[in-house]
Amino acid sequence: MNFSFDRYAGIVFCAIGIAFMIGSRSITASSYGSNVGANIFPMFLGGFLSLMSVRLIYETFRKQQHKSKSNLDYKRFGIIFTAAVLYAFFLEDIGFVISTFLFLLIGFQTMERGKVWKSVLIAACFSYGVYYLFVNVLDGSLPGFPAWLGIS
Amino acid sequence: MSTIDYLAHGLATAMQWHNVVFVFLGVLIGTVVGVLPGIGPMSGVALLIPITATMTGGLGPEEAATSSIILLAGVYYGAMYGGSTTSILLNTPGESSSVVTTLDGYQMAKQGRAGAALAISAIGSFAAGIISLIGLIFLAQPLSAVAIKFGPAEYFSLMVLGLLAISGLAGKSMVKALMMTAFGLLLATIGIDSVSGVERFTFGMPELYQGLEFLTIAVGMFAVGEVFKTILERENSDGEIAKINRILPTKQDMKESAGPIARGSVLGFFIGLLPGAGAILASFFSYVMEKKLSKNPEKFGKGAIAGVAAPESANNAASGGAMIPLLTMGIPSSGTTAILMGAFIMYNVQPGPLLFQDHPQLAWGVIASMFVGNLMLLILNMPLVKLFAKVIETPAKYLIPLIIVFSVFGVYAVQYSTFDLLLIMACGIIGYVLSKNDFPLAPLVLGLILGPMMENNMRRALTISNGDFMIFLQKPVSLAFLIIGVLWISIPLLLKLRGKKVIINEEG
User: Fold this and answer.
1) Contacts for A87 with CB less than 8 Å, ≥ 6 apart
2) In this predicted model, what pLDDT tens digit does every residue of B456-466 receive, in sequence order?
């Protein structure tokens, strides 16, 4: 167990709990003449969450810390995560087929270098295949090709 | 109408040709999900919700809901079948409830009895599926008859009990589990309050007005989080895949495993009924029980067939048992059933005592489809097990980016918003970091789904009592639920204080 993480997480969740309690004070306390408003539930839970967080922080001080080494592949994760965020962000602008193709190509090549043509083929088949199946066969709706491309 | 009539109607629904196709797809995808390490039943079901929503688009609302739930339930119990395959052949469980199967299953595979182990686990799962279904059929009506008498106070306390039970058993630290539950419930309050119409914690952001969609959170936390974990930690499964020689078990094998299958099924079914327990505990307990009952316990861990038959039957029976609290009371008892419940709500079907009155076609159709599905799984798994073993070899290189694409595609197809897509990426990171540090995620998603119902019932009860919180203690049934909930949390704590080891349930 990583106690320094637990301590920070405890502080963050405690803050979240307190923030919900403060936030719920600005919600009107009563509705339709009942004296039970929309504020009670989040107020109570916020309090409970901060209490539990304090208890967690207390636990991290009581126990001994023992370190465990971990070997994480940050570079690979960084590339794929950035690509995924960009993919999510630009999906509507450049359309499902193109963005999926690009993301898959980057993803495949980051996971393991080599066999570029195989990656291109799988990415192309998959991105267009899913689009075709979903839009033309199942009558779903996805962002198609961008208008400036002039395809459809 | 009697139960038998309802069941016959349900069977007629389940045998409609499109529903047969849905069952087949469900169990097939479920088996693949179970076989593939990296996607468990929870992320599998969450990823398929949007796809089923589109596939059923041409049907009426009731039929669409029936067909979708049939498919999603198929994924759920299909994954239980598939999970055993990797445990036996690779010594790595495909999903967490097959951990115990690795003990004897892999040993059997090493001795060249992989085929027999796989066949016994398929037969055991089938028997367990049928036994838990019979239990479901007989318990469904009486339980919903009881549950329909519950008022808002009783419901609120029942949900408190369910959440406490899950927090008490999930993960290594109960404090963390309770924090996650509270956090999930708090996230559920974001958006417009359904009773008074007041906006809460939206900070004027239009995306937040409809609240956080559970599908986005579930896909992000489970599917994307799991993918991020695989990318970061470079999990290399370099174990040799054992060869499968003969598939049919010998007569001796059948004789040795008949008892464990029967006992495992019954035990698993009752453990599945309990909130918070579930498939992992069921498989673990049944293994321990068989070891105690066995005439030669020293064979366990060295390839005893009973050590495969019992836990595999138990985890399947538990997944059937877990459907009962979901269908009759509307209280999910595990992460996967919570996601199934989310699917019900998406189709505007409220699981609970009224389900059997308002939507008999759906309720009994799903139950009957589980008969059909289990039969299909048995047929699929016996001859095709070699094919499924090939699925294990799917290179992670292609699998990982494809799961991300499916998550993005699935969420976009339902939500149509870039905000939700960015949210799944954020949830993926949060989910990965939290679960790596032993913060369980299942209570969070459960809180998110139960939140609105719990709050509404609480406020209804308080409106009845004119704001007096004592109403939860004055109603005897409600008081009983609360007491059980407190005991559930405090007994493990007391045992821990006395230095005993407490078994926990680690799902997701």
Assistant:
1) A99, A100, A102, A103, B404, B408
2) 889 888 888 88
Element housing A30 (H / E): none
According to the model, what pLDDT value does residue B507 have?
46
Question: Mean pLDDT throughout A137-151?
Answer: 75
B23 neighbors B75 (Cβ within 8 angstroms): no
Global pTM reads: 0.85
A40:B409 CB<8 A: no
Q: Which residues contact B292 (CB under 8 A, 6 or more apart)?
A: none
Using a CB-CB cut-off of 8 Å, the residues of chain A touching B228 are: 77, 81
pLDDT at B497: 75
Tell me the shortest Cα–Cα distance from B421 to chain A, in angstroms.
Answer: 5
Residues 6+ apart with CB under 8 A from B455: A41, B188, B189
- Distance (Å) of CA B191 to CA A13, A30, B188, B213, B446: 20, 17, 8, 10, 18
Chain A, 45-74: which have a CB under 8 Å from a chain B CB?
A: 45-46, 48-49, 52-53, 55-56, 59, 70-74
Residues pairing with B505 in the sheet: B170
Is the ipTM of this structure higher than 0.90?
no
Q: How far is A150 from chain B (nearest CA, A)?
A: 23
DSSP line for B302-353: S--THHHHHHHHHHHHHHHHTHHIIIIIS---SHHHHHHHHHHHHTT---ST
Domain coordinates of chain A in residue numbers? 3-62, 74-149
CA torsion B165-B82-A81-B434 (nearest 10°) is: 20
Scored b (16 or more CB within 10 A) or e, B233-248 reads: eeeeeeeebbebeebe
Sketch the domain layout of chain B as residue ranges.
3-497
* Contact check, Cβ <8 Å, B231/A80: yes
What is the percent of chain B where pLDDT is above 70?
A: 94
| Joined tokens for residue B244 | 């499968």
B484 to each of B20, B231, B488, B489, how far by Cα in Å? 41, 42, 6, 9
Chain B hits for A134, Cβ within 8 Å? 54, 409, 413
Q: Which residue of B has its CA nearest to A7?
A: B437
∠ CA B244-B245-B247, nearest 5°, is: 85
Q: Are A9 and B200 inside 8 Å of each other by CB?
A: no
- From A30-34, B153-157, B422-426, the region with the lowest mean pLDDT: A30-34
More confident residue, B381 or A54: A54
Indicate the average pLDDT of chain B: 84
